[in-house]
Amino acid sequence: MDFSRRRLLTGSKPPARPPWAMPEAQFLDHCTACGDCIRACPRGLLRHGGGRYPIIDLARGGCDFCGECAARCRPGALRPGRAASEAFAWRARPGTACLAHRAVECRVCGEACAAGAIRFARPAGSPARPRVEPAACTGCGLCLASCPAAAIELEAA
Prior knowledge:
This protein is of the alpha+beta class. Helices cover 21% and strands 15% of the residues.
């Protein structure tokens, strides 16, 4: 895994960058924080983060991999022309705040998942619990944005 100086000093995980971003240290070396990718995003998911570098806010909605951000990235910090499965270095994971852990039946994340990566298993006497198939998950964030309990977490793939 690639570590930036900031991450090594603070212990925090790198910010969620736009799709097809280079590894964090390379991204920071290449990105000029011009904002072209932010203006290009038709869904309004990108915004300025620390240092005015772009980040993606998947709580606003999921990425549909239109590629507009990468196509507009003149310095090449976003690598266009790659598959959707290569867009993000994370995959979704339902966390402990999931309503199923509170005995509430909910399948919103599975219904939102365009990739069909979320399946449900029903333990005996309990509501169905979501499971993410990592190989099918694109990390797009549709499940994250739709979850009524904000229980979806992103973890390194």
